[in-house]
Design goal:
Elements lengths: L1 E2 L7 H11 L8 H14 L3 E5 L2 H11 L7 E4 L5 H9 L3 E4 L11 H13 L6 E5 L8 H11 L2 E5 L7 E2 L2 E2 L8 E5 L12 E5 L2 H10 L4 E2 L16 E2 L10 H11 L2 H18 L22 E4 L3 H13 L2 E2 L11 H5 L8 H7 L2 E4 L7 H14 L2
Bound molecules: pyridoxal-5'-phosphate.
Length: about 375
């Protein structure tokens, strides 16, 4: 059996976790702060806020940017449902922007057109959540220029893109956005079992996210509205949640981060080999960008001519134990979103892509033999 993605936990990871399990603090200790520093340093952002999932990180990111009941926010249909759900969970109205059929990321031209229209109708979004699909960065420079014109805030959902680069800088340095969010679910680039992180260069946003992910409560004296010398004193300033990551998870993340560069190079190596070996087939393959825009290759997505071939190849591969997957059915066509009024043909690029795309196995420990077997099966099935 070959899955489409798989985490890796080493003996060293296990030793680190064991060490923390014997610590005084299982949660709210030093390791969470160390992990926040580790990720912020690696991606080149000033501040970080660890959470129990990327979904939680997206919620506190939206909240910190002020998203609420009278607002609108946009994302793309080609993403995991969480990127869209968080907008509704903040009480805001949602809309989508179609993707570019080649990059599978938000289409800057479509974004610009939609913002022009929204301004004319007086319904500009407060923020957009862009998604670095499969680990390839969006065109952040273009998105930033367009959003600046309309005063729209930007959140990067980089759940797929830890270790990816854009213009020679790591995704997450927030040069073109307000907040970037990463996921540490086992299928993603590194794992903390469950976990997420929001990074930003704006101190006030990090403070807000920290408070929101700890019940709205703070022990930081300089944020208090009342004076107190009581040693147990804390203040609730917001209505928050318990979105905390534990120290056990954080130390697993720190240990995994030692291998981040080798993970990304291995994923790129696998991608290159697929691209070389499947080049002669009728399948469309992802383009491999130069190093300064390197993808994290969380996913390797091939495109078939139509849904019929996509389904036939997927079913045959699964029958042979090659567990390919699909990312994603357009969010606006999920029954929940259809009930909100979204319909077919509203975002044609996302819909067409969904009928063609297939995620084939890619993960650091995928062996050459297993990869060759995947390639051979695909070649035979598409002849
Ligand atoms: C995995 C994923 C999420 C959710 O991450 P969790 O850590 O499981 O909450 C959000 N957005 C995208 C694009 C994802 O792939």
């Amino acid at each position: 059996m070959i899955p489409y993605g798989r985490h890796e936990v080493t003996n060293e990871d296990i030793r680190s976790v064991n060490r923390v399990l014997k610590n005084q603090n299982l949660t709210q200790g030093e390791e969470v702060i160390n992990f926040e520093k580790k990720i912020a340093n690696y991606v080149g952002a000033h501040f970080a806020c660890a959470t129990n999932s990327a979904t939680s990180a997206l919620i506190v990111a939206c909240k910190a940017l002020g998203l609420g009941r009278t607002d609108v926010a946009w994302t793309v249909p080609t993403t995991f449902v969480a990127s869209a759900n968080v907008i509704l969970q903040c009480g805001a109205e949602i809309d989508f922007v179609d993707i570019d059929p080649v990059t599978l990321n938000i289409c800057p031209e479509a974004l610009e057109k939609k913002l022009e229209m929204a301004e004319a109708h007086g319904c500009l979004p407060k923020l957009i959540i862009v998604v670095h699909m499969a680990g390839r960065s969006c065109n952040m420079n273009a998105i930033h220029c367009i959003c600046k014109k309309y005063n729209v805030k930007i959140i990067e959902d980089a759940s797929h893109a830890l270790g990816a680069k854009y213009e020679d800088m790591y995704v997450g340095n927030c040069a073109y956005s307000d907040i970037t969010v990463f996921s540490f679910h086992p299928v993603k680039i590194i794992t903390t079992c469950e976990g997420g992180m929001a990074v930003t260069n704006q101190k006030n946003l990090q403070e807000k996210m920290k408070i929101l992910s700890q019940h709205g409560v703070t022990k930081d004296k300089y944020l208090w509205q009342q004076k107190s010398d009581l040693p147990w004193y804390y203040e609730q300033l917001e209505l928050g949640w318990n979105f905390r990551m534990s120290d056990v998870q954080a130390v697993l993340g720190i240990s995994q981060m030692q291998r981040i560069e080798s993970y990304i190079s291995r994923r790129n190596e696998i991608a290159k080999y697929y691209s070389q070996e499947l080049n002669e087939t009728k399948i469309d393959l992802p383009t491999i960008d130069e190093e300064k825009n390197r993808s994290a290759f969380h996913l390797y997505i091939v495109l078939f001519a139509n849904r019929e071939i996509q389904t036939r190849v997927a079913n045959s591969l699964i029958e042979q134990g090659i567990f390919v997957n699909h990312h994603y059915m357009p969010v606006h066509l999920q029954p929940y979103y259809k009930k909100l009024g979204f319909k077919e043909n509203m975002f044609p690029n996302a819909e067409k892509y969904s009928e063609r795309g297939l995620s084939i196995p890619i993960f650091p420990s995928l062996s050459k033999n297993d990869q060759k077997s995947v390639i051979n099966h695909i070649k035979i099935l598409t002849q």
